[in-house]
Design goal:
The chain is an alpha/beta fold. The protein has a seven-stranded mixed sheet, sandwiched between helices. A three-stranded mixed sheet has the order 1-2-3. Strands 4-5-6 form a three-stranded mixed sheet. Strand 15 and strand 16 form a beta hairpin. It folds into two domains: about 120 residues, CBS-domain; about 230 residues, Spore Coat Polysaccharide Biosynthesis Protein SpsA, Chain A. Keywords: CBS domain. This is CBS domain-containing protein.
Amino acid sequence: MTQDQIRAICIPSTVTIKDVIKHLNDTGRKMLFIVDGGERLMGIISDGDIRRGLLAGYGFNESVEKIMFCEYIAFDFKDSTAKEQARELMLERNIPLVPLIDQQGKVRDIIQWTDIIASADTKKVHEIQEHEIVIMAGGKGTRLDVFTKIFPKPLIPVGDKPAIEFIMSRFYKYGFHKFLFTLNYKKEYVKLFLKEKQFPSDYKIDWVEEEDYLGTAGSLSLLRHRLTDTFFVVNCDTILDVDYAEVLKWHKERGAALTAVGCHNEIDIPFGVLTLANGKLDKIHEKPSHDVIINTGMYVMEPRIFTYLTPGTFMDMNELINAVAAKEDVSVYPVYGRDWLDLGQWDAYKRSTKTLENNGYV
């Protein structure tokens, strides 16, 4: 690895958690190395460490030192057996990067997964999953009405595929093959596509139809007798570049009734914001930024959430989540800007399809 590549993976310990998220987004990496002022290795940070840190209550502007992992394994860059040791470690623990350091603890080289394993061997074989994927495909898609006046939103093109086929193929990559659709608006178009398309032979596809519009969550009540195990729910305009099996594992480990996948976003306010105290101006913040976690429209749910739904009654997803959170644990699985592609509005749709094209997905 070149020195420029090494420097791109090593970041100073003075940065904030938000800085790390931006660096992960910019580099497309899943892991970075944290170094001190003397460029000595102090720890590692992965996207998983950030998720755990945020849920533990650390803020976006806190130091990365508070959540970095210090019990890392590194090898002597002069050791002739370092590459083989790194290979065994990577295979055993599924680690993408291993540092090689000198006697002062400085990173002199980095071994990547692709450096030591032939590309044909790097494809992870995922366990076949029997959990169902519920794709909410009944909405009118009014924010895309230039398109949806003619076709339903689930069939909006993503490259050479309709959105729902693209979503299904991404789940299939991680071992999921059971898909259940909720349909309403222009449902005959969607049904015809699902009947006529030649999907892989192990796909299992079914659907339910709303008689009336039941909101962004209400149609789930139609599935109360169909789903008896943990299941995913995803909007038909949401694409996530994550390992869905890892999201499921996260949900299970926390024993949550519901897990929402949320994406970090920085909201810029293009005005000066006035802060008041006792009826007087306390401070003016010029064009401040706020860090928020946005709901992406993907969830993992347990069948007991059906007890919060009344058959045939309108309910939006925020109402369902709030009702569940009032009585049970609701988890959040944070992702980052690069991981979420939104197809629900024209500007976002154009950005997302361009991103997919640039990354070779379409």
